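Pipeline run #58 for the internal structure catalog. This entry was flagged by the ingest filter as a single-chain record with no existing model, so it goes straight to prediction. Upstream metadata was stripped on purpose; only the residue string is passed forward. Reviewer on rotation: M.T. Logging verbosity set to normal.
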Amino acid sequence: MRFFRLDDENPLTGWHMLAIVCAFFGVVIAVNIVLAVKATGTFPGLVVENSYVASQHYDDLLARARAQDSRGFRDRLGAEGGVLRFSLAARDGGLLRGLDVVAHVGRPSTTAEDRRFDFAPAADGSYVASEPLGPGLWEVDLEAGRGAEALFRKTQEIFVKPSEARS
């Protein structure tokens, strides 16, 4: 038994063709709507709330980045077992201690898992996050300073392997 049987008893009429075309475009439109809703529901596309206001401070951002580079800091940011660990050394190699380290962490494609981590100093001079990250790709925006003085800022992507992640 064939799906379409074209013969004198069952001819393909204009109504049949209209139904086929409407079904085809209906499926295409439905799929596009579902994909558009999923795309806009996971990542809003915002990096800053107001891009015009952010652009007014761009020169300040560049000046702070040049000042940070001129200090010659050497940093290390990693996720051992899913736990973020950060260390910052001066030009001479000595680790900087007594810093306030904060990181804003989230997935690059969604804001659903965005959170803030306060780091605690470890005995080896590094700073450790308070809780582990799950497996996958994370974007870490880290800031280190003393009081109101911001000394260091860095944005880095970190990949946590499923075998390394702690629950």
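catalog note: The chain has a mean pLDDT of 87.
catalog note: The longest strand covers residues 149-160.
status: ready for reviewer M.T.
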